[in-house]
């Protein structure tokens, strides 16, 4: 009896330490309604993150042309073998080329939480300022309690000379 209880306890501890699995279910250029926010706990970057509602994917691509008001990102589905309550949020880190605000403050990453609703989380980035539009490699990394569960790389390009550099007011 004691041996059975010890085995069950070991199995429970192993599963408790395991985190949900994830699957990227969509990615690319998105549209939706931004809800401006104030910095929350664990958030770091040169500008506060904004929550998005009514997200829809316009173009499934990992090559993004930077334009003001353009959104890009990914949607992630979380799952687990044993039905249980999934986390209410994930931690997001966006690694990017150096960005510099007009006041001189610089950063190579943004960090913010993202809500998990019905097992799905959308994480992304919006070019809200011209100083954020940096060409190069950008990577979105999603974690739960410090353990990486998803990663997606994007290549950001600048609009060609004379092309529009804004999606503001479009769509």
For this entry, give a set of tags:
171 residues, mainly beta, 5-stranded mixed sheet, 4-stranded antiparallel sheet, DUF3859, DUF3859 domain-containing protein, signal
Task: Please give a structural write-up.
The strands form 2 sheets. Strands 3-9-8-5-6 form a 5-stranded mixed β-sheet, with no helix packed on it. Strands 2-1-4-7 form a 4-stranded antiparallel β-sheet, with no helix packed on it. It contains 1 helix and 9 strands, in the order H-E-E-E-E-E-E-E-E-E. The model is unreliable at 1-16 (pLDDT under 50). The chain is 9% helix and 50% strand. The radius of gyration is 19 Å and the shape is globular. By secondary structure, the protein is mostly beta strands. It has one domain (20-157): Sandwich (Immunoglobulin-like), CATH 2.60.40.2390. The longest helix is centred in the N-terminal third of the chain and has 16 residues, at 2-17.
């Amino acid at each position: 009896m004691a041996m059975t209880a010890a085995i069950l306890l070991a199995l429970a501890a192993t599963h408790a330490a395991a985190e949900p699995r994830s699957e990227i279910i969509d990615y690319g250029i998105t549209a939706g309604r931004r809800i401006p926010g104030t910095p929350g706990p664990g958030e770091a970057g040169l500008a506060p993150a904004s929550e998005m509602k009514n997200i829809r994917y316009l173009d499934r691509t990992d090559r993004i042309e930077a334009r003001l008001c353009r959104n890009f990102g990914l949607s992630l589905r979380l799952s687990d073998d044993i039905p249980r309550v999934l986390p209410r949020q994930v931690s997001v880190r966006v690694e990017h080329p150096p960005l510099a605000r007009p006041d001189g403050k610089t950063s190579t990453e943004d960090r913010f939480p993202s809500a998990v609703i019905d097992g799905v989380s959308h994480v992304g980035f919006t070019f809200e300022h011209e100083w954020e539009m940096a060409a190069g490699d950008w990577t979105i990394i999603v974690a739960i309690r410090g353990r990486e569960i998803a990663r997606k790389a994007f290549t950001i390009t600048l609009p060609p000379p004379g092309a529009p550099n804004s999606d503001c007011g479009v769509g």
